[in-house]
Write a structure and sequence with these properties.
With about 100 residues, the chain is of the alpha+beta class. It contains 5 helices and 3 strands. The chain has helices at about 10, 15-25, 30-40, 45-55, 75-90, and strands spanning about 30, 60-65, 70-75. It has a 3-stranded antiparallel beta sheet with strand order 1-3-2. Strand 2 (about 60-65) and strand 3 form a beta hairpin. The radius of gyration is 15 Å and the shape is elongated.
Length: about 100
């Protein structure tokens, strides 16, 4: 059986919550406050995790107004998440089955 690679950047619980929350959001975008509510993270921890994902170009950050910041999935982030989910699915497949 081939070794399965799970992207450690996505696999960390807080970042996986952020990425899947964005994936489920209409237009792949959420305000910082909504993402904080969904993830249950503190503001500081959420920013740290968003910055890590932003450095990898998995998410983008847009200041919509002085009071609203939106986080969105990038194309690279969507592809990385698809690969992550395919890797998870492959863990459930038995060797030799179709």
């Amino acid at each position: 059986m081939a070794e399965v690679f799970l992207d450690p950047l996505i696999h960390e619980k807080a970042r996986l919550l952020i990425m899947t929350g964005l994936l489920q959001a209409e237009g792949g975008r959420l305000s910082f406050s909504r993402l904080k509510e969904i993830s249950g993270l503190t503001s500081g921890n959420l920013w740290v995790q968003i910055k890590r994902l932003e450095e990898a170009d998995y998410v983008g950050v847009e200041n919509v107004s002085s009071r609203r910041t939106e986080i969105y999935l990038t194309e690279k982030g969507i592809v990385a998440l698809e690969k992550y989910f395919l890797a998870i699915q492959s863990l459930f497949k038995k060797e030799g089955s179709a």
